[in-house]
Amino acid sequence: MPAHSTRARKAVIPAAGLGTRFLPATKATPKEMLPVVDKPAIQYVVEEAAHSGLDDVLMVTGRNKRALEDHFDRAYELEQLLELKDDKEKLLKVRESSELATVHYVRQGNPLGLGHAVLCAEPHVGDQPFAVLLGDDLIDPRDQLLAQMLDVQEQHGGSVIALMEVDPDRAHLYGCAAVRPLEDGAEDTVLRVTDLVEKPEPGTAPSNLAVIGRYVLAPEIFEVLHRTAPGRGGEIQLTDALRELAADPSLGGPVHAVIFRGRRYDTGDRGEYLRAVVRLACEREDLGPDFRDWLAEFVRTDGKV
């Protein structure tokens, strides 16, 4: 019987980063609030958590992140105005973000890395398994990655990470995992993690399986993080703590991996952010047909539309 077979019910979303890759746009606007078509990126992440059954969300924020709290709060004056105009469509859109989940907030006073951000969630999470969703990674809602990870954690206990195959020449840009098949070999998308390395030196990665921004963690991760020394970049790396758990499952259960082969949008990179906007706009029923026609003509004429 797994050490923790209770299904996770809470989600933690680290959102304290400064978003320097998107300056000057993020000088006064949190990077998580940058729009992806007509919703801020962070709303897609909260939607994913809520649709997976995690309706208790803790955001780990920092300075200048008040816009996040405002977005997931009620906007009574705006709602009243839309009601007076009988604009039901926009009213539903405005209310949607405040009705997705119960959202809590905690400040990460010092920017000491992802591991430290997760530690800030300890008082809220307690002794239950929980999910961590990084706001830069958007997972297409048609690909039920988080739901599958929650199932794996409930079945096997311990912690679960998401891995994605990358070009071996780019493996040094990610945390990478060494894995082996499960004992019964029944699932080819679920593997046992034996080692993890955060941004290995070029040519030394244990595999081309890169860690992406979805985790389901056993509460024992907090005890390990408390004694995890700062690693690469002088930050407390969540990867280092997970590596310890993978090496000694007696500390808090094994670490499993779900191999993700679906649609992922990295909104932390400017080029990928633009591609995410285009892809999601193309698939919208209300925007897609006209936008795809314009885009095809734009490409055909080398941008001279």
Automatic annotation (TrEMBL):
Superkingdom: Bacteria
Annotated Gene3D superfamilies: Spore Coat Polysaccharide Biosynthesis Protein SpsA, Chain A (3.90.550.10)
EC category name: transferase
Record field: catalytic activity: alpha-D-glucose 1-phosphate + UTP + H(+) = UDP-alpha-D-glucose + diphosphate
One Pfam family recorded for the sequence: NTP_transferase
Entry EC no(s): 2.7.7.9
Keywords tagged on the record: Nucleotidyltransferase, Transferase
GO MF term set: UTP:glucose-1-phosphate uridylyltransferase activity
Location of the Nucleotidyl transferase domain: 10-276
InterPro entries (alphabetical): GalU_uridylyltTrfase_bac/arc, NTP_transferase_dom, Nucleotide-diphossugar_trans
UniProt keyword annotation of Transferase present: yes
Similarity-based family: Belongs to the UDPGP type 2 family.
Listed name of the protein: UTP--glucose-1-phosphate uridylyltransferase
This protein's encoding gene: galU
